[in-house]
């Protein structure tokens, strides 16, 4: 089996990870499913910034791991979760996580990100 290509961040494809200033809240169908003051903001090249939230700050009993997986040559293998609200609505593959991210982005280990087209992500001043 061929090993996947691993790429390092560079001037042509920069990646930065910094603590988010403020409180990050994530809602699905109006229901609060994650809240933290320990989020990390990942900026990658020209892509929109992504908030990575400690998985411990996500409502655990609403998560279901799925079989979906993807690969990023800069970050590694991603796993996915669906979230079911208290009303019983399930949003499939709304969360992704790099459980063993590559060394250049190791700060995001133990964190998850939400797709902004499937969840409402807000950053509130402290």
TrEMBL record:
**Stored Gene3D superfamilies:** Domain of unknown function (DUF427) (2.170.150.40)
Which is an annotated Pfam family here?
NTP_transf_9
The DUF427 domain, residue ranges = 24-116
Q: Which PANTHER family match?
A: CONSERVED PROTEIN, DUF427 DOMAIN PROTEIN (AFU_ORTHOLOGUE AFUA_3G02220)
Listed name of the protein: DUF427 domain-containing protein
What lineage does the source organism belong to?
Answer: Bacteria, Bacillati, Actinomycetota, Actinomycetes, Mycobacteriales
């Amino acid at each position: 089996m061929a090993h996947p290509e691993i790429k390092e961040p560079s001037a042509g494809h920069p990646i930065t990870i910094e603590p988010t200033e403020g409180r990050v809240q994530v809602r699905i169908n109006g229901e609060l499913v994650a809240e933290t003051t320990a989020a990390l903001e990942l900026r990658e090249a020209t892509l929109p910034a992504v908030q990575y939230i400690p998985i411990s700050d996500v409502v655990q009993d609403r998560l279901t791991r799925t079989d979906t997986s993807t690969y990023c040559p800069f970050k590694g293998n991603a796993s996915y979760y669906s979230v079911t609200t208290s009303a019983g609505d399930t949003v499939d593959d709304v969360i992704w996580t790099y459980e063993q991210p590559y060394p250049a982005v190791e700060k995001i280990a133990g964190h998850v990100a939400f797709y902004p087209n499937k969840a409402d992500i807000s950053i509130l001043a402290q």
